[in-house]
């Protein structure tokens, strides 16, 4: 798993070594494209956020795999694809 820290690639199936690395990546992506995140559920095993701005249709889901450490992006709804 090699990631560009400055320009992270966040898409369905993307793997990250741990939840901390994934959180940093999604924050960096938000900074790059200029949107704010609204947390829905975040803990040590899952990360679900949506756009903080009004009727914005995107949402992202990621969670740890069976190894208890590696994080995989499971769902990327709609508009975030265009922001990437």
From TrEMBL:
Q: What is this protein called?
A: Transposase MuDR plant domain-containing protein
Task: Please spell out the taxonomic lineage of the organism that makes this protein.
Answer: Eukaryota, Viridiplantae, Streptophyta, Embryophyta, Tracheophyta
- Check the record and name the InterPro entries matching this protein: Transposase_MuDR
Q: What residues does the Transposase MuDR plant domain cover? A: 10-73
């Amino acid at each position: 798993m090699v990631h560009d820290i400055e320009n992270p690639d966040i898409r369905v199936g993307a793997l990250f070594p741990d939840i901390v690395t994934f959180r940093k990546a999604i924050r960096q992506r938000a900074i790059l494209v200029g949107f704010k995140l609204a947390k829905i559920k975040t803990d040590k095993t899952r990360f679900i956020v949506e756009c903080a701005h009004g009727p914005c249709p995107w949402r992202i889901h990621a969670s740890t795999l069976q190894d208890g450490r590696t994080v995989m992006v499971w769902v990327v709804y709609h508009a975030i694809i265009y922001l990437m």
